Amino acid sequence: MNAVVVRLSAVFGRSVAASIGMAAGIAMAGATIGAGFTTVPVQAATLDTIAKQAILVDLTSDTVLFEKNADERMAPSSMSKIMTAYMVFEAIKGGRLTLESTLPVSERAWRMQGSKMFVELHNNIKVDDLLKGMIVQSGNDACIVLAEGLAGSEQSFAEQATKRARELGLKNSNFTNATGWPDPNHYMTARDLAILAERLIKDFPEFYKYDSIREFKYHGITQGNRNPLLYRNMNVDGLKTGHTDAGGYGLTASGEREGRRLLLVVNGLPSMQARADESARLIEWGFREFASYTLYKGGETIEQVPVWLGEQDMVPVTVPQNLSVTMARADRPGMKVSLVSNAPVAAPIKKGDTVGKLVISAPGFPGKEVPVVAAQDVPKAGIFGRAFAAAKYLVFGNSL
């Protein structure tokens, strides 16, 4: 089975070669981490940050553009409230709560210090208002009302949040409260925060709108959203700030331009101004220096791969989901895409069976491999068809 070189259809106005031949296997290459982020820190050496921990991800292709101490445990401060919000959104989606449900204010919630929504003791407050108080005003009191409403106590809620975090792929997170209140056993990593924020954005798009609300008035007190990038005309629409003496100033932020969404987590910055300026600089760098390129749409036929002893000689191959890659704009002209398969693929073949892989490369780009699958079934040929194929092979050899 000699390798056969064909030409794929034009991608971005240029052709790319496809190599269909013997492959040593269909194993995925490239480091996949967390909930699916791929580390492609192209040109990362050209960038530094004064943040102690940072990670910048292109969510269009789940690609890490830059990271610094991203797996170092840190005090997430009020960025922990992203987890509390996720748990509340999940409860609403699961039918346990509605936005119109009301929850009682305990004395513990009422007495909670730090940033506050200013809930009233023994009052019953709508979940909708509590969410705004937590997300917009960063109200610790609102967090405790929500936590007690869902789990009976903040401690029980924290235990449930830690368990759910493990299920979401947050490997280095532990919660002892719902607010991010300082506790040596309450920690996250920048990577875990990025994974969590991505899940919140993608799992609950109907609720993500809370993060872009600029101000909220409750109990006669109007407070503005603490996310400084919401006010900078940068297309940023979330998520949450944080600050404690142990963690410094932090921000988890996301924004979208021209269909491309970036997600940033920074922590350990020295001041509110540094948090605003450094976050803006990193996000602008990500949008300016990189671009996401859609190679194929899910279900789109990429090429035909030869079949051995099937009812048809070729099977169309595709990718199950839209395939995008993110790379430095300067590296784009040298991008190459190759299709590699164990050809011919023996029948029977089921739709969705992995039959090869796409190998994507470019100068300065560490490479990416993505499985390709059969786009349709190919039954095994009948006895006469198999006999004919065998005879053809004896006479003509491998003419694929």
From TrEMBL:
Domain of life: Bacteria
Pathway this chain belongs to: Cell wall biogenesis; peptidoglycan biosynthesis
Any one GO biological process: peptidoglycan biosynthetic process
Signal peptide (from-to): 1-29
Family annotation (Gene3D superfamilies): D-Ala-D-Ala carboxypeptidase, C-terminal domain, DD-peptidase/beta-lactamase superfamily
The family this protein is said to belong to: Belongs to the peptidase S11 family.
Protein name: serine-type D-Ala-D-Ala carboxypeptidase
